[in-house]
Every structure is written in structure tokens, then in C-alpha cells.
Amino acid sequence: MPHYDHNKGAARETLCRLLAACYYEPGSEFAEEKVFDSMLDAAKRIYPDLAAGAARLGEAFSADALDDLLLDYTRLFLGPTETIAQPYGSVWLSGEKTLMQDSTMAVLELYREGGFEIDDEFRELPDHIAVELEFFYLLIYRENQAQQFNEIGALTSTASLRKRFLDEHLRAWIGPFTAAVKAGAKSNFYRELAELTNRFVRMETDSEKLKTED
Question: CB–CB of 127/103 below 8 Å?
């Protein structure tokens, strides 16, 4: 098995998990739990160029009033009239405004294959950006565990599932979605979040390409 950087793997887990959390309603717990300090630390350990973006994200959260962030969050992702940046993969993959399309069923099948269950009380659709990032985090976590314990079969199957999910879903719509967030956001926080999310997914994609070339 080739050399594997467990420190970097753990940092990828952390950054992906916290990016997902940032797409839920903003609250004071973001600061209380030092979410952005953890993101910055993780970004420094993964890709140095991500660190500047993570630092700007934390600074933007501190600079903006929570009420303003809540207002921008609502405008961008909820409405109440026309939603500026629909946070659902099916909208961007189909080019239509209809939710729960074939792509949603396809991502649910990947969730089932990965043993990823959505809580019955969860009120969002399964292809919400936060859910897809949480699934990606779970796959990174399982790969890290398989690497640590030298479980070749689990490593191969999980890496394959993560690549399929990345190619067929997450990276296929993250670009236009984050572009819409950046264009429509009134707060620096959501502009920086969109940029950091897009760069993280692009770097994960580039990493996969390098593995294929090797």
C-alpha cells in the first residue's frame, strides 16, 4: 500500500464536515464551538492555498451581525419568493427548478450503498448541499480508517464509491451552485463559504486525477 498521510486525511475529514455545517442556519454556536479556528487549522494541513480562504471565512463571520447572516441565508437558500441559489443537486444537474428528480434517486442509491442513513426527522431533501458534503465526509473518514488498519477490501470499495459520488454528483453541480451563491450573496461570509467549498471540491477532484495518472 502506498504511503498515506493520516494527518492530512484527518484534516480533509474535518474541513469537509465543517463546510457541511456552514450550510445550515447560522447561529452563535459557530463561534462558541470555534468552528472557524478548526477549519483554518485543517485547511493549513491539507492545501496551503486553502488557508487564506478559511481565514477570510472566519473573519467574515466575526464581522457580520448574526441577524444579517440569517437574512442572507434565507434570501440565498430558502426564498421566500425566488430562491437565489437552490441548495439541491437536482436543480443544477437537470437545469430545471423541479426537485426530487432522477439524480436525487441516484444519490439516494449511493447513500444506501455507503450505509448512510438520513434521520427521519431531517426536514431537507437528500441532495441538499449539506447532506452531500456530510456523505463525502463519511467516505473520507471510512477511507482513513481502512488505511489506518490496512483493510484493503474496505479501502478499495470506499475509494471507488467516493470517486463515483464525486464524479457523478458533487463536482458536477458544485461549480454553478457556488457561482450563484457568490453572485447573489450580500454578505462576505457566504461569498467566502462558496469560494472555499468550490476550491475544496476542485482540489479533491484534482487529487483523484493525479491518482489515475499515477
Answer: yes
CB 94 within 8 A of CB 105: no
Residue 35 contacts residue 18 (beta carbons within 8 Å)? yes
Count of the separate structural domains present in the chain: 1
Q: What digits encode the pLDDT tens for the residues 159-194?
A: 999 999 999 999 999 999 999 999 999 999 999 999
Report the C-alpha gap between 63 and 75 in whole angstroms: 19
pTM recorded for the entire structure: 0.92
Dump pLDDT digits (tens) for 143-159.
Answer: 999 998 999 999 999 99
Tell me, yes or no, whether 131 lies in a domain: yes
Domain that holds residue 180: 6-213
Phi, psi (degrees; rounded to nearest 5) at 16: -65, -45
For residue 142, give the CATH number of its domain.
1.10.3480.10
CA distance 124 to 131: 9
